[in-house]
# Entry
Amino acid sequence: MSEKELKNGSPPHMAHNEKDGSNSPPLKDEFGPDPARRASVAMNIVENPLRRTSREQTVVDAEAFCNANEMGEHAALFGRAALVARDGFHNVPGLTEDERTALEYEKGHKWHGPMMLWYSIGLCAIGAATQGWDQTGSNGANLSFPEEFGIAGGGRDAWIVGLVNSIIFLTAGLIGAWIVDPMNKYLGRRGEIFVTAACLTATPIGSAFARSWQGLFAARFVMGIGIGAK
# Structure
């Protein structure tokens, strides 16, 4: 690009073809010329919800949360933590030296964490992987189970294959989602997770051992309830 082009005020192209050296069309600005639109998009990306209220109200809300959840002895700690999340620890008075040291260390060692944190992350990752398998593991089986179970034809057979595939989503929404609150109330969150995890462990195994489309349908029916209820 010559100096003359820059002096004339013509905007430089943002992309080029590396093979022949010719300039390609300039990149399109998806936000358009409106600066308000660009600013609103940027604000939506980085807005901190705690900054919607004053510092004083943020502390009051944090302490009220503690008192409402029987953690009143930690109210002051939660108030300081809320201010740190709101403004950053450099701008929060009242932090102890140990708290500042811990926050400084955390800032410079982003991947450091207690073993239980990584253990929890690992469990969540495995849980996500197993749910994906529960939901989509039958895709490959679609190539063989209709013929294996004698439902490879059209008409009614095609409806049965579709129902076997979709039943987990139907029961997840129509049954599983509606029993979440009662299960959490009577079993507690851990108990509810244990029951649904056991369900989602047993039903894929049951699906693998199904000897008929009715058995596969029943296993996936219960699987959907577990997916919706967890």
User: Anything to note?
Assistant: The mean pLDDT is 80. The first helix runs from residue 3 to 7.
